[in-house]
Amino acid sequence: MRKLMVRMVNRMKTENDWNTILNECRKAVQKKISPLLKEITEPQSDYGIGAGGDPIKKVDLEAETAIINTIKESNISFTLISEESGIIEIGKKPKENYIVVDPIDGSTNFSRRLPFYATSIAVSNDQTLGGIHTALVSDLARNHTYIANKKHGAYKNGERIEPSEIEFFENAIIGVDLNTNQLKTLKSLTKVLTMIQHLRHFGANALELCFVADGTLDAFIDIRGKLRITDLAAAFLIVKESGAKISTSDETFLTDKTLFKKRIALIAAGNSKIYSQLIRALPNYTKDI
Ligand code: IPD
Ligand code: CA
């Protein structure tokens, strides 16, 4: 693998090259975290506060180091935008590639052995969400890997995925992030909560968005205005490439210095019909943030 990665240095990276690199990152993360999972016998201590503002767990640091070291092996210059370390420039031309990482999405689940956590990595040519050309989200507990390349569709374990065609709330399973103590947000959700028949929240938003991409969920909403760019960058492309709908309350530059202070709300849905009903039931979706 090392030789293959080094051979890539002298030529432009193709989609396949990036897919290979991100897959190697996934394997490196998996290798690092498996022993940690076996060690968990009690709640994990914190290792300070990450750039994203949340307490860092050992698993977050191990996964982040595994990703950085794997990308470094390929001799690529890049700007890393990570939930834990923030913005780091690596190599001589760091502005050639922007790599947006949430080393572990669902760290709290991991720390209690709840089998729902993922690694999330997106590669962009520039500083915008729109510049993301390759994305990987991997469900590390079940070994399901979602990959998307811009304009080339989204895949789960190599098979093309498509979102749900369910258009009515009666039959729909809708993910809602209720992880908030903000009464204002809960009030804004009142109408939609009375419409939903089957509500779910699993605790790792990148993976829940991939569930919209592959039709496991019919929609996912998080209007708390708490998500960071690192939480959603990879899943954003995967959802779009699957053909599902996704909108965010803010799509500004990825490397804005205020990036980690910026918080985003989002709505994703399998099709326009269910998306429009959600938007109608959430009139304060963007204004509230
Ligand atoms: C968290 C998860 C969770 C969401 C939190 C996120 P993290 O990500 O996605 O579902 O409710 O807001 O912070 O912190 O485990 O990477
Ligand atoms: Ca995280």
Write the topology of this structure.
Blueprint (H helix, E strand, L loop, with lengths): L1 H6 L7 H25 L18 H16 L4 E5 L3 E5 L7 E8 L1 H5 L6 E7 L7 E8 L4 E6 L4 E3 L2 E2 L12 E4 L6 H6 L1 H6 L2 E3 L4 H9 L5 E9 L1 H14 L2 E4 L15 E6 L2 H10 L8
Parallel strand pairs: 1-3, 9-10, 9-11
Antiparallel strand pairs: 1-2, 3-4, 4-5, 5-6, 6-7, 7-8, 11-13, 12-13
Helix pairs in contact: 2-3, 7-8
This protein binds D-MYO-inositol-1-phosphate and calcium ion.
Describe the 3D structure:
- This protein has 289 residues and is of the alpha+beta class.
- 34% of the residues lie in helices and 24% in strands.
- It contains nine helices and 13 strands.
- It has an eight-stranded mixed beta sheet with strand order 2-1-3-4-5-6-7-8, sandwiched between helices. Strands 10-9-11-13-12 form a five-stranded mixed beta sheet, sandwiched between helices.
- The longest helix has 25 residues, at 15-39.
- The radius of gyration is 18 Å and the shape is globular.
- Bound molecules: D-MYO-inositol-1-phosphate and calcium ion.
- Calcium ion (CA) binds next to strand 3.
